[in-house]
Amino acid sequence: MGVPTLGCSCAVCASTDAHDRRLRPSALLRWREPAAESSACAERTVVIDTGPDFREQALRERLALVDAVFYTHSHVDHIMGMDDLRPLSFISARQGRYIPLYASAETATVLEQVFAYTFSPQATYPTRARVELKPLAGRNAVLGVEFVRIPLLHGEMPIAGFRFGNAAYLTDVSAIPEPSFALLQGLEVLVLSALRHKPHPSHATLEQALTWARRIGARQTWFTHISHDLGHEETNRTLPVNARLAYDGLSVPVIL
Ligand SMILES: [Zn+2]
Ligand SMILES: [Zn+2]
User: Measured in angstroms, how far is the CA atom of residue 146 from the centroid of ligand 1?
Assistant: First the structure.
């Protein structure tokens, strides 16, 4: 819902700590790739989820190009900013390619319905986003970096988390199927959703997420997808040193 949450005046929604202002969750992975014939480096960018706040987040991070997008699932807080890829997709299209959107079959079906004016074979809207849906495989290579799909459950809904190098991004999790733990060995950085203390039918509590974080054993765990029930400072005081609430704009080095 974002924090502050509409219509709410609780202590976290009214907090003056910038860490308590939370846009909808998303991740941006940036790396530099040596260019073939010069000493210059090309910047590569992959976005995970384009929620309703994508435009604002992209402006904050000065995003000028997107090489690919990965979708975790089809809920509005993860897809609704897709259309704001348009100006960036025009830049890609001028360079001869559409932005690939990696999505499961279920997520692709919803994207095609919600953004029919973009994806329908009959679409005639002239300035629609220059994007193309790509089937999400178990392992997906983007410009030399492998994105491993991590099967997760979000209530009854199967969704995708992603591992890249020594890091993983798992949001909207209510259960981690046993075989998925094997894909999460040797992590340095884990980003994991933790909504609140009170149980929710399709999101883990902070306590459940901490149990998984301990089992996965990443050097550092960052919690995301946090509701207004968890204040930044007061919650961090209760966490072990290698687990912290993430916050908007947090940047973490990873090895790909
Ligand atoms: Zn969701
Ligand atoms: Zn969500």
Answer: 24
